[in-house]
Amino acid sequence: MNRNIILSLLFSIAIALPTFAGEGMWLPLLLKALNEEEMQSMGMKMSAEDIYSVNQGSLKDAIAHFGGFCTSEVISDQGLLLTNHHCGYSEIQSHSTLDKNYLKDGFWASNLSEELANPGLFARFIDRIIDVSEDVLAGTDAATTDAERDAIIAKNIDALKGTMVLKAYEEVQIKPFFNTNQYFAFVTVTYNDVRLVGAPPESIGKFGADTDNWEWPRHTGDFALFRIYAGQDNMPADYSAENKPYTPKHSLPISLDGVEEGDFTLVFGFPGRTKQYLPGVAVEQTLNVLNPAKIEIRDNALGIVGKAMREDPNIKLKYASKFASIANYWKKWIGESLGLEKTNALDKKAKFEAELVQRSPAAKTYLEEFDTYYKAIEPYALVKDYFSEVTGRNIELMRVASISKRLVDRYDNNGEEGYKGYAGRVIPFFEGLYKNYDASVDKAVFTSLVELYKNNIDAKYVPKAIQGNVNGLADKVYNGSMLANGEKYIKLLKEGSPADVVKALNADPGFQVYNEWAEVYHQEAAVQYSGINTKIDSLQRLYMKAQMDAFPEKKFYPDANSTLRVTYGQVNGYEPKDGVWYEPVTTLGGVIAKYIPNDYEFDVHPKLVELYNDKDFGEYATQDGKIPVCFLGSNHTTGGNSGSPAIDAYGNLIGLNFDRVWEGTMSDINYDKSICRNIMVDARYILFVVDKFAGAGHLIEEMNLVHPKLGQVNLMPTVGEKACCADGSDCSKCETMCTPEGLVKSCKKCMKKQKQCKKHKDCCKS
Ligand code: ARG
Ligand code: ASP
Fold first, then answer.
1. For ligand 1, is residue 336 a contact (CB within 6 Å)?
2. What is the span of the domain harbouring residue 417?
3. Which of 141, 223, 614, 631 has its CA 20 to 30 A from that of 528?
4. Active-site residues: which are they?
5. Are residues 287 and 215 in the same domain?
6. Are residues 214 and 68 located together in one domain of the fold?
């Protein structure tokens, strides 16, 4: 069959597929029962077992939780790990100085010895997942109070952990699902030596920065490369120069064939947190009270920090990572609120609740109770968000004070021993924090946010310490507090006795302000908040169960909780507003069109312009000669899914998830399949940047590049196994079946792994 016939056949199959499904973050071990059939009807050629298997290598063996906050995947048999640039951002920043600025200029290790260690960073694999609901919930029916139920569960979990047989290096986490109606155990293996291998300059990795963040059309090459190192036995080991690149159970082949609208996509990763099953009254509170408050706080802080960053390159470097992370959720909340309004989320909830009550009369009582509780919790919830945003997140001196408070508490409660254990962890944390600290920027943030707090929060929650003139207070705190002077404070922490440190803290004006503030907050709001919240949590458990019982025909997926999930959909554009259709694919031409020389968000590196002008695209261009950059899919993702692989119907990497579209950022609360889209970097853009832009061809050599659409299907070629052609034969037949170089190259690679023949020619002849 010639190539064109194969291609047109494949395309007609794609067009005939049902449009799309997308909602849901599914547990890998339940795919067979819940999803396999639908996934295959959408074009997937794998089985559920290819994705998640306990007994043999499967896709899940290539997926690692990156530092606990992002996802990453292994893309070579030497432990090469792909994740987002924004996930590795603080590591890239930490290796940077103004002279050797890897954020600005990028970083590429030319061999293993140049790869950079990152203390504290880990890559965690899931070995197996076990449904332990029965064991964990045993005896809870008899519990008469929530506290009793919690105690039984805690005891059951302890007992269960005691009986589980774990291999060396394995750990187990037991986590609640569906608001503690179910429990699953995750057996994990964690690698702690993860080194930085390569990162493009920010002008690629963060192209469009905050202006384009959460938006489509997008042109960001948001990727970075790390490598997992292991001990001599390939098992986890603390950092050591002797460690070796990790040999994975599975690494993802990378497709050179790209995507078309309608193609099946699967995103595999660790989504952090969603709230799909809340009552309408909770959504209303987020929309009308909590989101606007948090947005306003960050608006103020970002205005101040952003201005300072634009004026001073030193501050820009120090604050880059913090600014990006504060700006990220600031913008997310704005989009989320707009989206909730635009999709009439509250009406939808009301309709759903009416139907629920019809099917399950008990739900009526639950909803009434929710109304009472949410009304009661509102003032406390507002103060809670304010207090944590202002003192825990945006004013750094208050953040240092809050951590220092814990140090003082340890000393007061557990003496020197307690103090020392905690100080050992806190000192390195503070060293990192102060490396990127500027007291004058922080003072301006303090002045603005204290004022805002006093204006917007009921006097009952305003401590005496922050009453009065805010400028005078800021002078007093920032001139008088040792916490504004990192060097001085760290010296004291390192050299002073615990009693000295505690004494100095208690006498410190900054520490005193925080202390008083925290005390008022705890007494007047936190206690009340948690009392009501406990009731809301336990009601939510009953409400969740009521929803599941009332709609037995519906497939329920658990809210995200940082556990491994599969989400699947298709490559798909969307209609952001009436009369406008967004195509699902962007190209390098779009990068050039956005180019603003020397702009801090839209500058383009001259080398990239040159490659574009020369059309020096190698094998990474589309059929019509363009370099693809990003694409959209209807996969249901959230924070934590960043760095997750986008995988094709056969198990090959086609892209790297990093964001969602503006109109769909409310998907955490109210997924709407018409406009919720995730944004991925096209794998070919990553390869193009690594190869052509960075000249890091040695990294490409490590990877396994494949052409699934040319008939080379490559079903699950676990390291050491044979890759297969579409007809099920092994790759020795590839040459006669499929065309050009790409195929032969991949065939060579797969045979090389088997070490069965030295040259691809030999293997293809045989
Ligand atoms: N919005 C994406 C996510 O939530 C990307 C964030 C990184 N980029 C940025 N400009 N802050 O993480
Ligand atoms: N950008 C997010 C992340 O870092 C992904 C998302 O929220 O869509 O995980």
1. no
2. 280-548
3. 141
4. 86, 222, 642
5. no
6. yes
Distance 375 CA to ligand 2 centre (A): 31
Residue where the block lists tokens 């556990």? 563
Q: Tell me the pLDDT tens digit for each residue of 692-745.
A: 999 999 999 999 999 988 765 544 443 333 444 444 444 443 333 333 333 333
Q: Is 120 among the domain residues?
A: yes
- Please give the Cα distance from 39 to 21 (Å, whole number): 9
Question: Do 248 and 300 lie in a common domain?
Answer: no
173 and 308 inside one domain: no
The answer on pLDDT for 376 being more than 60 is yes
Helix, strand, or coil here: 153? helix
Structural domain count of the chain: 3
Q: Are residues 293 and 431 in the same domain?
A: yes
Is residue 599 one of the residues assigned to a domain?
no
Tens-digit pLDDT profile for residues 499-510: 999 999 999 999
- Rounded CA separation 173/161 (Å): 9
Predicted local confidence at residue 733, as pLDDT: 32
Same domain, 186 and 303: no
44 lines ligand 1 (CB under 6 A): no
Residue 387 lies in a domain: yes
Q: CB count, 10 Å around CB of 583?
A: 12
Strand 580-582 with 574-577, pairing: antiparallel
Say yes or no to pLDDT of 601 above 80.
yes
HEC secondary structure over 545-591: HHHHHHCCCCCCCCCCCCCCEEEEEEECCEEEECCEEECCEEEHHHH
Residue 315 lies in a domain: yes
Q: Is there an atom of ligand 2 within 6 Å of 567 CB?
A: no
Ligand at shortest distance from the CA of 657: 2
For residue 766, pLDDT beyond 70: no
Give the distance (Å) from ligand 2 centre to CA of residue 71: 10
759 has a pLDDT exceeding 70: no
Q: Nearest ligand, CA of residue 328?
A: 1
Whole-number pLDDT of residue 697:
97
Which of 513, 548, 583 is the last residue before a domain boundary? 548
Percent of the chain with pLDDT strictly greater than 90:
88
Q: Percent of the chain beyond pLDDT 70?
A: 90
Asked if residue 86 has its Cβ within 6 Å of ligand 1, the reply is yes
CA-to-CA separations, 371 to 278, 365, 533, in angstroms, rounded:
12, 10, 13
